[in-house]
TrEMBL record:
GO biological process: dimethylallyl diphosphate biosynthetic process; isopentenyl diphosphate biosynthetic process, methylerythritol 4-phosphate pathway
Listed GO MF terms: 4 iron, 4 sulfur cluster binding; 4-hydroxy-3-methylbut-2-enyl diphosphate reductase activity; metal ion binding
Cofactor: [4Fe-4S] cluster
InterPro entries: LytB/IspH, NT_sf
Keywords assigned by UniProt, alphabetized: 4Fe-4S, Iron, Iron-sulfur, Metal-binding, Oxidoreductase
Gene3D superfamilies cross-referenced by the UniProt entry: 3.40.50.11270, 4-hydroxy-3-methylbut-2-enyl diphosphate reductase, catalytic domain
Protein name according to UniProt: 4-hydroxy-3-methylbut-2-enyl diphosphate reductase
Segments crossing the lipid bilayer: none
Origin superkingdom: Bacteria
UniProt keyword Acyltransferase present: no
Length: 415
């Protein structure tokens, strides 16, 4: 049998099977409840309860595409072993659904180290790259194993990768605003080694860590102190004295937009203070790499919060960065804000949720009674970009039942 060409082994455009799998996608991820509320201006009212949903929420284009391609891949290769390098997206129900389809995971979540698992792959095996992408060295190993690769990496992530690769090729160090352990950030950092790049990066999680960098740039912190504080986010062999002379700022696409902007501005100002405004272009670059879907969902939440609300419910995986940021925004404005992993987290008077700002870890979940006030109550609801409408609809159904309302009766009255 002739060896397949590289193009036949690498796929980024699906297999033109959307029509064949559409019924499965609708069954698993569509919600008539959500459709009903959207058709009525995103508001539902019944017996003293007003429920408003944000005008942008749930699956973004990149996630929808990744899910679509995963289903198409199973349809295209019904008898092949199919693997995925790690979580497809940060939504447990989605990842569980892939397992039901017989797709095996080569690594799990933030602890992904699939190097040994790669050794059992054969040229007949199919490997999905998730929406977050995969590090350069992983893709290289998959190509060495001659696997069939289906790449679902989000286009917004690819845009950041191009920027980081360009920084590295120009000899700039990439300062990446993101979580150093996150799959997307690790994949982005690896792009500094592409096409002759210098391989230099420094990951900062927030404004506090950014402050360490600016203190060093201004000469107020030693290289050893900076290594002690941020060594976990530095590229191998990182030398602050040498590698922070020329920097370009990028970001994990799901971070808070306002924080990413401040990170870039604070580093820009520090570089201007050190080298002079007139020399800044030789030492600093910043381009807008905020994911439009992340920004749209944050902007939609701000609009939702302009309405008087007693309670806000945010639906999405606890290890989802963009969902956690929505929860932080809501909690700063509405004290009764609840980040739930799924609709099943609401059981009458009890809600299981993750307090905002706690680590991206399911073990942070707490249980609270009396979460829903009696009498007139106004509830706002949104969801992260990896949350399917089916989970959002289930959350709405559980909210109605918590008020003693039959969903079918409510929707009939609102028709």
């Amino acid at each position: 049998m002739a060896r397949k060409t590289a193009d036949e082994k690498y796929h980024r455009r699906g297999f033109k099977l959307r029509r064949e799998i559409q019924a499965l996608l609708d069954r698993d991820y569509r919600s008539e409840i959500v459709d009903h509320i959207r058709e009525r201006g995103n508001v539902l009212q019944a017996d003293g309860l007003t429920l408003r949903i944000a005008d942008e929420f749930g699956f973004c284009y990149g996630v929808d595409r990744a899910v679509d391609y995963a289903f198409q891949t199973r349809a295209r290769f019904p008898d092949r072993r199919i693997f995925i390098t790690g979580d497809m997206i940060h939504n447990q129900s989605m990842n569980d659904r892939l397992r039901e389809m017989g797709i095996e995971f080569l690594s799990q979540g933030f602890d992904g180290r699939p190097d040994e698992a790669f050794e059992r792959l054969t040229p007949e095996d199919v490997v999905l790259l998730p929406a977050f992408g995969a590090p350069v060295q992983w893709v290289r190993k998959l190509r060495e194993r001659d696997c069939i690769i289906v790449d679902t990496t989000c286009g917004s992530v690819l845009a950041v990768w191009k920027r980081v690769a360009r920084y590295a090729q120009k000899g700039f160090t990439s300062i990446i605003h993101g979580k150093y352990y996150h799959e997307e950030t690790r994949a982005t950092a690896s792009q500094t080694t592409r096409d002759g790049g210098n391989g230099k990066y420094l990951i900062v999680r927030d404004l506090r860590e950014t402050g360490y960098v600016t203190e060093f740039i201004r000469g107020r912190m030693s290289a050893d102190e900076l290594r002690e504080k941020l060594g976990h986010g530095m590229s191998p062999g990182f030398d602050p004295e040498e590698d922070l002379q020329r920097v370009g700022v990028a970001n994990q696409t799901t971070m808070l937009m306002t924080e990413t902007m401040r990170v870039g501005e604070e580093i820009r100002q520090a570089m201007a203070d050190r080298y002079g405004e007139e020399n800044l272009a030789e030492h600093f670059e910043l381009f807008d790499t905020i994911c439009s879907a992340t920004q749209d969902r944050q902007d939609a939440l701000f609009r939702l919060l302009k309405h008087p609300l007693d309670v806000v419910v945010i639906v999405g995986g606890y290890n989802s960065s963009n969902t956690n940021n929505l929860a932080i925004i809501a909690a700063e404005r509405v004290p009764r804000s609840y980040h739930i992993a799924a609709g099943t987290n609401i059981e009458g008077d009890v809600i299981r949720h993750k307090p905002p700002g706690t680590p991206l870890d399911p073990r942070q979940e707490v249980e609270e009674r009396g979460w829903l006030p009696e009498g007139e109550v106004k509830i706002g609801l949104t969801a992260g970009a990896s949350t399917p409408n089916s989970q959002i609809g289930l959350a709405i159904e559980r909210i109605l039942k918590a008020r003693g309302l039959a969903p079918a009766d409510v929707f009939a009255a609102n028709s």
